[in-house]
């Protein structure tokens, strides 16, 4: 990869022309609006190259090789980063996803947890699990627009700690005006038995592998979860039996002639 190559991003929407480099690992890619986006070299794939894109030497004024000092100054230039957006994707959609590392060995494989941000907003998040009446923070951070973020890896021995989890999110845009989205705090009761069943994991638009996906926010609306415990069911049945009066058929009495 060199200056002048046209590239696209592997894990984000967009691409552009390579304008320079910051160190060995960061490429400065100019999008169609001229904004230079810093991107890891390994996250870029060349889709069009010009082997003759080296500046031509002028006969009257030969080019002078850039010194190391000049290259360092160029690397220190401030870079304007603008998150790529998808038209019509200003509606907030966020998902919590569990992906088996080897779906063919679902009874023994480990799993990866992701937070999927299918919107043009940055999403600050907390991912927590319940321990009795308290909560434990499992992951926190920011998911860029139209991206997914790996939260953690776990095996079957860690399933018990995932029976009751929560996701809290705050959505915003940091480089332009935007419509305000409400903060979200969503709890989930995870049926961990599902992690032993192959049909639990289904194809999706977000992963090459089958995944178990829970909706945190769907089209700007918080998805309500219904929690019913065994104690709740037992209590409801007892109340029902008490409230219903016993109905015994009364024997008909006949007048004595």
In words, what does this structure look like?
It comes from Candidatus Phocaeicola excrementipullorum. InterPro entries: DUF2027 (IPR018598), Smr_assoc-like_sf (IPR036781). Pfam families: DUF2027 (PF09640). This is DUF2027 domain-containing protein. This protein starts with 5 loop residues before the first strand and ends in a 14-residue tail after the last helix. It is elongated and about 90 Å long. The protein has a 5-stranded antiparallel sheet, with no helix packed on it. The chain has a 5-stranded antiparallel sheet with strand order 10-7-6-13-14, with no helix packed on it. The protein is built from 2 helices and 14 strands. It is mainly β and 257 residues long.
Q: Can you give the mean pLDDT?
A: 81
Tertiary shape: elongated
For this entry, what is the oligomeric state of its chains? single chain
Helix content: under 10%
Report how far apart the termini are: 114 Å
Q: Which residues form runs of ≥5 with pLDDT under 50?
A: 52-59, 249-257
Adjacency order of strands in the biggest sheet: 4-3-2-1-5
Count every beta strand, where a strand is a DSSP E run of 2 or more residues.
14
Q: Indicate the structural class.
A: mainly beta
> Over the alpha carbons, how many angstroms does the gyration radius reach?
29 Å
Biggest sheet overview? 5 strands, antiparallel
Indicate the proportion of strand residues.
35-45%
The H/E string reads EEEEEHEEEEEEEEEH
Number of helices: 2
Protein name: DUF2027 domain-containing protein
Organism: Candidatus Phocaeicola excrementipullorum
Pfam family, one: DUF2027
Region (Disordered): 58-78
């Amino acid at each position: 990869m060199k200056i002048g190559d046209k590239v696209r991003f592997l894990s984000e929407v967009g691409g552009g022309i390579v304008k320079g480099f910051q160190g060995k690992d960061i490429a400065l890619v100019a999008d169609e609006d001229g904004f230079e986006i810093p991107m890891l070299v390994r996250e870029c794939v060349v889709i069009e190259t010009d082997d003759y894109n080296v500046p031509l030497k002028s006969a009257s004024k030969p080019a002078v090789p850039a010194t190391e000092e000049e290259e360092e100054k160029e690397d220190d230039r401030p870079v304007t980063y603008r998150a790529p957006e998808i038209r019509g994707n200003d509606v907030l959609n966020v998902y919590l996803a569990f992906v088996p590392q080897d779906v063919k060995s679902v009874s023994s494989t480990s799993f990866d947890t992701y937070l999927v941000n299918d919107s043009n907003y940055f999403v600050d998040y907390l991912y927590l699990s319940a321990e009795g009446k308290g909560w434990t923070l499992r992951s926190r951070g920011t998911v860029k627009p139209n991206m997914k973020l790996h939260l953690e890896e776990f095996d079957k021995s860690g399933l018990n700690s995932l029976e009751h989890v929560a996701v809290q999110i705050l959505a915003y845009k940091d480089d332009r005006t935007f419509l305000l989205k409400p903060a979200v705090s969503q709890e989930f009761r995870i049926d961990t038995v599902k992690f032993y069943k192959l049909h639990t994991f289904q194809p999706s638009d977000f992963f090459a592998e089958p995944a178990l996906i829970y909706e945190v926010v769907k089209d700007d609306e918080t998805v309500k979860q219904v929690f019913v415990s065994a104690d709740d069911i037992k209590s409801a049945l007892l109340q029902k039996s008490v409230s219903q009066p016993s109905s015994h058929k009364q024997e008909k009495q006949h007048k004595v002639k």
